[in-house]
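Progress note, project year one: complex with pyridoxal-5'-phosphate.
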Amino acid sequence: MLKENLANVREKINIACKKVGRNPDEVTLVAVSKMKPLEDIETLLETGQMEYGENYVQELCDKYEKISRPVHWHMIGHLQTNKVKYIIDKTVLIHSVDSVHLAKQIEKEAAKRNLTAQILIQVNIAEEETKFGLDTEELLQIIMEISKFPHVHIRGLMTSAPFVADPEENRCYFKKLHELFVDIGKKNIDNVTMDILSMGMTNDYEVAIEEGATMVRVGTGIFGERNYNK
Ligand SMILES: *Cc1c(COP(=O)(O)O)cnc(C)c1O
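Model obtained:
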């Protein structure tokens, strides 16, 4: 079942790419395993799926300790500064950096371990009150500031689009974030490489790909519904 779901999502990624003349190799699928058991990840590992996204620091650390083979962990949830130290050397990419304050802490912890943290800047592209992420007006300024940290490497942008019934409603937001991504990339800022655009979830990843996503984060579409009442 899980493997079938994954194959289905991959097929849909291929179709979306084909529709707009993109190479599916340009799109990385992050399987969002939050609140799902380790066994599910172990099963998908058999297919070669290497990228997994987690939202909660404790859960990421638990799975990191227990998994039989190393995988590429992505921190996609809101990150508190006091928890950076737990995940800094366990993740390949932190998607959810939304302040200089947080980046500064990442710099500090990365420097301590002599590593360079790969990060994305989270943008609240639809400017929803309830969402984390930067407003577009402050984005460039904050990227400039974070780019000065030697142990932090900005790789691109990330957003969680609004929850909508029809994914077409989010197309304008994906388009807008892609434009920002390209514009900022053209500025050739030192220590900033705009090569990852993380947008699109179960409900809207195909539209996100059509609009230029290079990374999609799919949970429910692979693992099934999450039970938040457990
Ligand atoms: C939970 C989550 C996802 C996956 O959501 P689905 O709708 O289950 O695909 C993707 N990105 C973020 C930031 C999330 O919190």
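Strands lie at 28-32, 51-54, 72-75, 91-97, 117-122, 152-158, 192-198, 215-218.
Residues 2-19 form the longest helix (18 residues).
No further modelling is planned for this target in the current period.
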